[in-house]
Design the sequence.
């Protein structure tokens, strides 16, 4: 493609992803060391994950189970048998100077994931997903702080051997927004499967390939691209992305950068670029590395694994997309409310508990708006409420049974529960929020106003006598127990307010 | 250290209590990890490496009450047929002074031949137990791939190699095999050998009715004196009731090429970790880490190791992978198939272990190709994952000659029974 012949309007962005997901298993993929993050360097290590001479890998079935769950969730083919290969390259964080990974027989192939972007549904093809081991991590000290400029570099092998799933998509994305939607959906799915901990540092690492190609190279349905056109266009690989928000920003930057280059008649270099999160830009990695030859060959220390039986044996829970649809149908929720309530499995499970006991609408207001809203305000996650969800249920019960007002429940009890850790009954007791006769009179006042719009209109147009009619209504509702003078004042306050 | 330079490290490691090997001394090849005792693989690269853990076989020795007397000399990382590529100097052959003890487990075979240990452990990737057993006039067993745990054995060609015993008699070797055999949760390639796993019991010397297949290809080009000694041993077995017939293994013509391509490819990857960061000399180099790795490897490895790493890297490279590595795998499958067929017509197969008697010290070091061809009779067995034993068959011109018997997978008992008729 020559830059001169192309106008900006004719350009289409094409993006493909390689997503590395740390699987949440108790132990590493090839040894019994803990995967629990720790501050002490080189604490969770043994001869196997240190790659000591003579040590041998033994496959952790928990990692395979997680991979099979992911395969089922993305509707991938899981083969009869899966094998491991060695990927040979030298890097100081790699204990053996090769990585045990999968090559031509990955555990998952030909999957897909449906996403929605501004109401449009799209299916993203997932070419493959395979298991591999995470390398260690490097800490560059002194000097320029980079791998080639630091005074010295420390190696921490705690991370080495953490199970990773590498998920490779087709070049199916046409915008950074689609990438963000995909990654958010993927994260949700992984959390639902219980194989992923988003809170863990480095649990999601994304490499993205982005090319700009002329629009005419794309067929009518906007999904199929001419492979030659993609081959002809130079692409950049953007590394060091660690979240769906980061992906969106990095790729939006990169898209603009490439389009600007083309518009100005400059060539786009085929290169690897590094996403600098703090500066919000991508930077060219120091040297243009030649095409790497990883000399893949089979890992003889791990016999081929028969996985055909696993697919049937391993169950996966209802996934977010299906649950969202069911929430809309079963509980009559809006799409927005259903989305909020299915954003994590814990939230959705909790909603279903509450909706089972009380009115689904009330439950939705309480879980989606009040609880998540207050948690969000405090930068807290639902996971931090573990063990206290019963208290939230009790609070909803107090509201449902009219023991306290919704306003008090939300503004006083819930906030105090989150801030001070007290239980709802304690707070109601302490703050004296239980409904009294006064509340009853106040409620009758509100009802009388609601039910008699004619009298309200007369009052508002200057007929002061109309107030007497309303006082009568309130007296009736309260069985005559209220003081007419007080009622008169309450009515005037409500009508003026 | 004795004059023969048998041990790299002489160090006594006492076993526990009174197991089956109580009172037995064992020499251990220096590529088998011993906790707290340096394990050099005959390389300068690991001159100071002290493993923090025991190989599974070493734990088994300790539990059996054996006393380890030292770590034996070997070709660097197992790459050699003479023990002369060791960074710690050559070992003399106690059974034929002035000659090499064979390799790569030359120190272990020599330790048994010289009486420095009752029995010994070696490892066999392409003949590294059987060759020195033959050259030193002792018994050596290369077990079926998967019978003995490799956990703690520093890898050279990990799809090919096994740890196995040396002894003066087949029965003693079988007793040691009893201690080290068995599946290990730390080695996923170990397999349950089935019910018949009492090896020492099998050393009855009873060969009545045994059918021996002699692959004609494994006699071609062999030294005349070696062939003569071999047939004398077969005649001896015939006298005791065995019968023999000739069989053919057409694929073995390609076995040496296939073996070296596979072993070197695996070695190029297995030895990649020795980059100067945690082993060997490092630091103080100018340039980036990539250059530092190169310098450390250039300094730390000997010529034969470098040769094999370079050739293996080449064989796995894009554009050559199919021509070499993949073709070698195809040849390997063919060799397996040939052995299966030959063993369907015979109980065991027999050949000279080595086609030549022991070289004189220094004779062969300059010609790697001649060395590689000397492995013609042993490497096919590793390609086929089968068990084999080398027993002393006699002498030619005063030099030891070994007879190799090859059995079906997990047919160690059969081999031990047959070989025990000779030693």
Sequence:
């Amino acid at each position: 493609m020559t830059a001169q012949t192309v106008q900006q309007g004719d350009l289409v962005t094409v993006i493909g992803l390689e997503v590395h997901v740390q699987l949440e298993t108790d132990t590493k993929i090839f040894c019994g060391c803990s995967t629990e993050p720790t501050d002490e360097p080189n604490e969770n290590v043994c001869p196997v994950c240190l790659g000591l001479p003579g040590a041998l890998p033994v496959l952790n079935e928990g990692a395979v189970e997680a991979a099979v769950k992911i395969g089922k969730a993305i509707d991938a083919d899981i083969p009869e048998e899966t094998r491991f290969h060695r990927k040979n390259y030298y890097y100081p964080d790699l204990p053996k100077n090769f990585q045990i990974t999968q090559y031509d027989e990955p555990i998952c192939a030909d999957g897909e994931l449906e996403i929605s972007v501004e109401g449009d549904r799209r299916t993203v093809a997932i070419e493959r997903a395979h298991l591999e081991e995470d390398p260690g991590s490097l800490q560059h000290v002194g000097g320029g702080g980079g791998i080639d400029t630091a005074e010295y570099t420390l190696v921490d092998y705690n991370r080495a051997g953490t199970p990773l799933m590498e998920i490779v998509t087709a070049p199916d994305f046409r915008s950074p927004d689609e990438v963000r939607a995909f990654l958010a959906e993927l994260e949700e799915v992984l959390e639902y499967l219980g194989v992923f901990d988003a809170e863990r540092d480095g649990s999601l690492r994304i490499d993205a390939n982005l090319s700009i190609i002329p629009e005419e190279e794309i067929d009518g349905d906007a999904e199929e691209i001419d492979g030659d056109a993609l081959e002809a266009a130079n692409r950049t690989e953007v590394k060091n992305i660690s979240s769906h928000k980061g992906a969106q920003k990095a790729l939006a930057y990169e898209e603009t950068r490439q389009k600007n280059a083309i518009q100005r008649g400059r060539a786009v270099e085929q290169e690897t670029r590094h996403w600098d999160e703090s500066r919000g830009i991508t930077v060219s990695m120091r040297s243009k590395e030649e095409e790497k030859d990883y000399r893949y060959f089979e890992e003889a220390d791990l016999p081929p694994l028969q996985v055909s039986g696993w697919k049937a044996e391993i169950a996966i829970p209802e996934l977010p997309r299906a649950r969202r649809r069911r929430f809309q149908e079963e509980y009559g929720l809006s799409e927005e409310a259903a989305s909020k309530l299915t954003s994590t499995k814990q939230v959705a499970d909790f909603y279903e508990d509450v909706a089972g006991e009380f009115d689904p609408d009330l439950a939705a207001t309480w879980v989606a708006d009040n609880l998540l809203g207050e948690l969000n305000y405090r930068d807290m996650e639902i996971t931090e409420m573990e063990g206290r969800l019963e208290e939230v249920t009790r609070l909803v019960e107090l509201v449902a049974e009219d023991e306290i007002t919704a306003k008090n429940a939300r503004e006083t009890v819930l906030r105090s529960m989150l801030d001070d850790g007290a239980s709802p009954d304690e707070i109601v007791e302490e703050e004296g929020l239980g409904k009294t006769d006064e509340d009853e009179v106040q409620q009758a006042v509100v009802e009388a106003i609601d039910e008699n719009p004619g009298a309200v209109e007369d009052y508002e147009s200057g007929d002061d006598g109309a107030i007497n009619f309303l006082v009568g209504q309130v007296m009736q509702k309260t069985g005559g127990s209220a003081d007419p003078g007080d009622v008169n004042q309450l009515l005037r306050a409500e009508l003026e307010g | 250290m004795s004059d023969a330079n048998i041990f790299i490290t002489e160090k006594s490691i006492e076993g526990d209590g009174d197991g089956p090997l109580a009172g037995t001394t064992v020499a251990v090849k220096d590529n088998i990890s011993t906790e707290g005792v340096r394990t050099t693989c005959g390389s300068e690269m690991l001159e100071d490496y002290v493993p923090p853990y025991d190989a599974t076989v070493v734990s088994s020795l300790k539990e059996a009450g054996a006393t380890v007397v030292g770590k034996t000399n070997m070709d660097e990382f197992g790459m050699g047929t003479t023990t002369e590529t060791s960074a710690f100097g050559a070992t003399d052959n106690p059974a034929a002074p002035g000659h090499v003890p064979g390799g790569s487990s030359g120190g272990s075979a020599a330790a048994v031949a010289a009486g420095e240990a009752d029995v010994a452990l070696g490892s066999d990737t392409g003949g590294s137990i059987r060759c020195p057993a033959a050259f030193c006039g002792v018994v050596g067993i290369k077990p079926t791939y998967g019978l003995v745990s490799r956990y703690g054995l520093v890898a050279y060609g990990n799809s090919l190699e096994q740890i196995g015993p040396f002894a003066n008699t087949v029965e003693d070797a079988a007793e040691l095999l009893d201690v080290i055999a068995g599946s290990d949760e730390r080695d996923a390639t170990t397999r349950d050998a089935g019910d018949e796993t009492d090896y020492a019991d099998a050393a009855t010397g009873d060969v009545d009715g045994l059918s021996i297949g002699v692959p004609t290809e494994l006699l071609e080009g062999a030294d005349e004196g070696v062939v003569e000694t071999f047939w004398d041993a077969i005649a001896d077995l015939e006298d005791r009731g065995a019968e023999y017939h000739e069989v053919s293994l057409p694929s073995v013509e390609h076995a040496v090429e296939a073996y070296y391509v596979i072993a070197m490819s695996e070695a190029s990857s297995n030895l990649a970790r020795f980059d100067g960061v945690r082993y060997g000399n490092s630091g103080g180099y100018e340039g980036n880490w990539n250059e530092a790795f190169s310098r450390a490897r250039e300094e730390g490895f000997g010529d034969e190791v470098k040769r094999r790493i370079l050739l293996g890297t080449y064989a796995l490279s894009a554009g050559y992978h199919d021509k070499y590595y993949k073709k070698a795998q195809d040849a390997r499958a063919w060799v397996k198939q040939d052995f299966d067929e030959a063993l369907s017509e015979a109980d065991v197969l027999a050949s000279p272990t080595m086609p030549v008697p022991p070289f004189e010290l220094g004779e062969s070091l300059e010609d790697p190709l001649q060395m590689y061809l000397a492995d013609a009779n042993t490497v096919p067995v590793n390609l086929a994952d089968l068990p084999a034993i080398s027993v002393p068959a006699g002498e030619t011109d005063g030099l030891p000659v070994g007879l190799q018997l090859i059995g079906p997978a997990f047919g160690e008992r059969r081999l031990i029974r047959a070989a025990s008729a000779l030693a």
